Amino acid sequence: MTQVMPPKPPARPDRVSLWRYAKLFRQDILSAQPARLYRAWMAEFRTPFFRSFLVNQPDLVKLLLKERPEDFPKSDRIAEGLKPLLGNSVFLTNGEAWKRQRRIIDPAFEGGRLKDTYPAMRAAAEAAVKRLEGRTGPVEIEEETSHAAADVIFRTLFSIPIDHEVAGEVFTRFRDYQRSQPLLNLAAFVPLPRWMPRLFRAGTRQNAKTIRALIAQLTTERMAAIKAGRAPDDLATKIMTTRDPETGSTFDTAEMVDQVAIFFLAGHETSASALAWALYLMALYPDWQERVAAEAAVLEDESFAAVSRLKISRDVFRETLRLYPPVPMMVREAACPERFRNRAVPKGAQMVLSPWHLHRHERLWENPDGFDPARWGTENGKQCQRDAYIPFSAGARVCTGAGFAMVEGPLLLSMILRRFRIEPAAGKAPVPVAHLTVRSKNGIWLQLSPRQPKLFLKSFGQSF
Q1: pLDDT tens digit sequence for 160-206
Q2: Distance (Å, whole) CA 422 – CA 408
C-alpha cells in the first residue's frame, strides 16, 4: 500500500534564466527553488545584481545564528517589503536598537506569564470551536485558524475578543494584506538604490496604513488606561510599563505601534498557518487524529497544568512546524568577508537560512518528506531537533513567543479535534505557497463532523 505523503510544491528545473527565476520567485519562493537544495550543504546564487548563499550545513547554521550573530545581522533588505506595516519593530532592527527592544519585550513572555495568559488563550479556543459548530459542507480551515489565532492575540495582548470593533477591523485588513505581500520579495536580494521607489501590489500600502492607525488607537487608549490606573494586567500593559534596565526608558506610543504590528504578524499569522496545516495533516492521517482526540480528554481539566499532558498533540504540532515552517526563509548579511566550504563569501552577501529546506534535508532527516510525529522520540529525530530544526529561528534572535506558540498550537488543535472528526474535502488537495507565511494556494478545505460523546469516551478508554 502506497504511503500518503504530505503535499510539497514541485521544484523548478536546476537551470533557468534570470528573468524566469524572477517571475517564479514573485509567484512563490518555494517552487522557485531547485530540488538540489534539499541535498546541498551550501548553494551559491550569482547574478549581475547580487550574490547569495543558501546555508544548510548544521555547523554553519549554528555559526550564523548562535555563535556569531552580530557578524551576520538581519539583512536590511528584509525591511523593503515589510516596512509599511512593521516600521522599526524588533523583527527588522539590528544592533543597539534591537537589543533595547528585546530588553523591554522579553520579560512579558517569561515563565509565569504563559500561565497568566492561558485563560484568555483557552477562551479563544472555546470560541473557535463554537464558531465551527453547525458548519455544513467543506470548510476553508485557513480562514478559521486565522480567526482563532487573531482572537488569541487580541485577548492576550489587549484583553479584547476578536468581535471587538477595532480588533475585527484589524483582522479584516490584515487578511487582505497577507495575500498581497510575501515575506521575502526580490527587494530582499536585489540591492536597489535608496532613491528608487519601491513597488507594492495594489492596496498593500493602504492596508498597512489602516492597520497601523487602528493599532495606534488601541495603544493610545491603553496608555491612558495605564496612567489612570485601570489597565488590565495583560501583555500590552506589561510591555508598555516595562523599563529598559539599562536606560530606564519605556516604549512611547509610536514605538509600541511598531511592536504590536509584529506581535500580530508573528503571533497571529504564523500560528494560523501552522494550525491550518496541522489540521490538514490530521485529516490526512486519521490514526494520529484519533490519538490526539483521545488525549484531548485531559482538557476537562481547565487549568494550565493540563497543557503539559498534551504530549501527542505537541509532537504532531512540532512535526507540522518541521514540514510547514511558517517562516520558510530568513536572510542575514555578511558584515565582513568570510570563507565557507572553501568558497569566498564577500562582505554584503546575502546569507539565506531556509527552514523549509533544512527541515526536509535528505542527508539529515530519516523520511524527510514524510509525516511522522513519532520521530521526535528517535535518535535521528533528537539529533535533528538540536542541529536542523529552526521553526522559531535560533540563538539571540529566537522568536520571543516560541513558548507561547507551543502552548497555543497544541491547545487549539486538541480542542478542535476533541469536538470534531475531520476529513480532507474531495478534490481540493492543498498546494503550499509562501505569502507572508507558508499557506495553501487555494486554501485548505476540510469536512468536519461532530464526534459522538459515547464513541469518543470509548476510544479514549481503549488508548490508555
Answers
A1: 998 888 888 888 887 777 655 554 454 555 555 444 444 455 567 78
A2: 20
